[in-house]
Structure prediction request, 1077 residues.
Amino acid sequence: MAEVKLTIDGISVNAHEGALVIDAARSAGIHIPHYCYHPALGNPGVCRLCLVEVEGAPKLQVACRLPVKDGMVVKTRSEAAKKAQAFSVELHLVDHPLDCPVCDQAGECLLQDYYQRHALHSSSVREDKLHKPKRVELGPNVMLDAERCILCTRCVRFLDEITGTRELGVFQRGEEGEIALTPGKRLDNPYAGNVVDLCPVGALTERDFRFQVRVWYLKSTPTLCTGCARGCSILLQTNPERRWHAGGRRAVRIKPRVNSSVNGWWICDEGRASWKAVDAPSRLKTPSWLKSGKAGAMAWEDAEKLLAAELAELCRVRGPEGLAVVLSGTLSNEDLYAAKKLFVERLRAGRLLVKPGPDQLGEEDGLLRRQARVPNLRGAQALGFGAALKECSWDSLLEDVLSGKVWGLWAVGRDPLAVWGEKGPAALSKLELTVHQAVHASAFTQAARWVLPSASWAEQDATFTNFQGRVQRARKALEPLGASRPDWRIFGGILRSLGGAWPHESPEPVFAELSLKEPAFAGLGFELPPEGASL
Amino acid sequence: MSGRITVKTVERPRMGLLEQVYVFEALRGLWVTSRHFFLNLWRHTLKAAGLKAEPGAVTIQYPEDPAVVARRARTRHRLLKREDGSPRCVACLLCETICPAKCIRIVAEESPDVMVEKRAKSFEIDLGECVFCGYCVEACPEDAIRMDSGQVEMSAHSREDMVWTMAELMGDQPKLRPIRPSKDPLAG
Amino acid sequence: MSSFWVDALWSAVKVLGAVGFGMGLAGILSWVERKQSALLQDRIGANRADILGYRLLGLFHMLADPIKLLVKEDFVPPQGQRFWHDLAPGLSLACATLCLAALPFGDSFELFGRSWSLRPLPMGAGVVFVLASLSVGVHGIAMAGWSSASAYSLLGGLRGAAQMISYEVAMLSILAAPLFLYGTLDLAEAVRWQARTLWGFLPAWGLLLQPLAFLLFLTAGAAETKRAPFDLPEGEAEIVGYFVEYSGMKFAMFMTTDFVESVVLAGLTTALFLGGWHLPGLGLLGLPQPLFALAGVGVFAAKVVAVLWLLMQIRWTLPRFRYDQLLALGWKGLLPLSLLNFAATAWVVWGWTR
Prediction:
């Protein structure tokens, strides 16, 4: 494509032919105010906010509909442009209620921002504001306040063009125009939550987040979603200080983070709700063991020592062939590397299971969601699981347990009882050693001899490899709950108690060693760019 | 508007010889204080003798006489109500945000009135932490909180009792102050 | 009874009387301090302590204070040196109390065929004794500052020591002039000297003959007692000083020391400048000699109280000096002026007596 050269606010800018002035300006670091335009959703040109002056043009031009031309001279901050932008903001505010104090968008509202930046007028409108339906439940996740809507139609276009589900439309005309559900529909598609992010004002709000906490209290951590093999880039928002809000939860909201090579601008509603698990009451907090039918909590040092002794003794007496280890793609690259060192290299466990069974499979669609509901399946494969390291399946494992070939079962983050169904309890009774290492309690937690609490994805620095082979960083947003710790630390601690070498106390050197030892990860560093890096 | 600061130089008054010698100025000071001393002594004596006299002191005898608080003084907060009796507060958390002592704790909830939208489920002020700066009053967009109760007696026997709840701040419920036997902090 | 035992008994009575006088006044001073300051500042002053609802002008604070201080914890800083920490306030108070012994409370009188002195310790060099005793008191302050193991205490102690030594120098040279005039170091003799009249009607008190020395002595004395406007070693609310690490009764002993020193200073001023037990016209009543001497004691006490009132008034009137101003006043103001005064006195006395 040919390059053209134009001048915006005195800065010389190169752009592809056919590009829009608003995009060319953005690439030069000049922000032209806009509501309706969205890079993924086209440019209806309805908000009339991006008016700029173009030399030679008789009137002001709409920057989001104006293609660049060679030699074009654009002024975004000329007196005429400034006046037009301010007037547009004023028109948008004619019927917009000034209820910022109770509006959840306050603090991240483009109307507020642009009023401060471009308008600062005192209203010349004497008439009363129009009243429209408030508190309309569009679907399970989204609430509409039609009064606050400025009819930018971003949500309508998203549902038309991206999901194709067309739940929303603009009804009536002129000042009575409003967004509403098309008859007979409900905004319940799996990507519905994105309309909340798209809405530049407080018209569409997230029902889970409504009135929970003000946005300016939140701390945002750029990390990734661990809900499926896609590994969407997200911002995990936490409420670090004022714990009386949001019911005392630390993690309160997830927003998509733009990453053109993974998820674009969107995330699915399942991922959007995944903060709920972080502070769920089912979280495991202390290592414990069952002794003569009673659960006894203990310190990590003791647990490591006792468990390692048990393992060593059983391996000596019964042989390592009978130890089965259930891992999964929910574990990070570092976790899997540590697991490999412990179970494969040190203990030589006879049976390994990594690939997702019925417990980790879900719906797949063409947009984002992947069938494998684990974030690091590709990473496990890159480390040799399933290829050089032979795997068993849930069914063969059940048979081996029932026939007495397996004496020990160590399940990490997965519940054999949920997969095996009614044969489960019988199988467990055959086992001499059961270990449940997990973030959340489940049926297996009650039955397992050992329970080791893992830290959740929000509580550690780690790397995950998505289905495209893109290695991305999860960043620590919170401290691990209770005594829970990252899985690699648990594996490393046992390894150390068994007499193996494990010098690492933080994830960075683990990854450094991994990238040295594993050819698939060669050349990668722990500090990855925000969009990740390919294997 | 120019950004220049205008500087006015104030000449320090020069002291004469008599002032520098200090003794005479000291005597002048002693004269003033002694005058007050003997005048007040005389007034107290007259009063003790049951005669009419001007008061010998200008101070307010606080625990016996009520405290005099200026009309504009920032005193204990109160929460205001609408005409229908519901609290004015819409739980916007602006006061909680601005509070430099972080002594305001509000939990928000959905209001049954769709036009009000949001209201406070609970609203607590920890007067033990409050610095009485009045920012909460300034920040409030609803005129829901004021510091004009005129009340300055807020002491309590425990930190928990220093926390005022919404009902107490609105005056719906008197602040209960259980007088407990003070516990020796060293007694464990 | 042998004359020795009579002497011993009489001495004991006098010593107890003197100590009682000093300590009693010191106790009352803690009340006066509050009430006098309140009066001159248009306040009421301490009035909360009561017995059965009677408040008696707040006099019970005099009782309440020691009770409170006595039952408080005697705290010694963990790094502090307990022995010296305990010794310091005792030494200070003892030195101040010792000075009381030299004060001439009254003239001696004849009864039962022998002479009875009204001085607790009749001695020829009373002035020197008092000054020496006050000097030893410095050790208490330095000791308190050092043994507290606190930088603030130590600095306060050093400030106190420097201040007191500076003003002792000045004090001696100030007293040189009146003592040269009286021609004695004996305080009783000095009082007797002042019993004469000038031109037949004016009492020959040091105040009139040595007004400059009186002024300088009062100034130096206020500095010596470490009270405002010279309270730099320990400035109550504002200046952390040498007894910051003290609590309870040991703290109270330091406070009492200041008051007792004030009493001593007032006694010395009375003896040297205000004619001691003399009151013009008292002789006209024609009292028998013992009664006359006892009345002298009353006169002396009254004069002491008056001087104490003046010191208290000064303390609540004048603002505190800066430390450099304090030392400059001592070395560059009081000392040269007192030397000039001494030279002038010596010259006049020489001219008079020749």
